[in-house]
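Hey L., structure's done. Input below.
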Amino acid sequence: MRGLLLALLVLAPLAQADNRLTPWTAGPPNAEWSAPWRLADIPKLKPSERSLVEQSGQQVLRIQAAAAAGGLLHPLDLPGDQPWQLSWQWRTEQKLEQARFATREGDDYAARVYVLLDYPLDSLSFVTRQKLRLARTFFDPDLPAATLSYVWDNRAAPGTHARSAYTETVEMLVLRGPEAALGQWLTESRDLRADAVAAFGSAPRKILGVVFAADSDNTGESATSYFAAPQLQLPKP
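Output:
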């Protein structure tokens, strides 16, 4: 996916008490997914196919990317100075053999999770501020000032991180690499404030949204990935 234009064998049940992410299926009957979840596509790119399917008695998100890019977005408006914990489960069925981490020609990931962040413009470099202003004017007024991108990569080892090849406002962090088992559910949990401080030097002003996505538009390959049990919570005191 383009930077600014825009991540276990039995699925655990969703704990809803203080989860800030609405369940996929909390909306009216027969809906594809419940509001405020919505499609996140990139202009001029073929969109990935997104659908809800049942696995192990749970409704999970399936994303099929065939020379395509796209995700499912949950908008948020949360204070960024708190230690929000984002957790989810994911699995992917194929590697993207031609992908290359943090390169323009190979910027594809079988599974990825974006966290959209808001920072004051004066905290950004002059060049970044100008680019962001232009992008907001001509593409999307709600583009985030910064983004964390957690990826399932085909070559890089977990813990590898780098700025996106397309923009310095997207920090990419590999959570699963070539050693990760295909076709098996794996669980992630991230401290968003800590990751944002490590990436951008300070806590964000706000958490603006979370996107679950897959993309293969650069390499033209195909991948099918699944996401389940998304939760965003504050640690219990």
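The first strand starts at residue 38 and ends at 40. The chain has a mean pLDDT of 86.

-- N.
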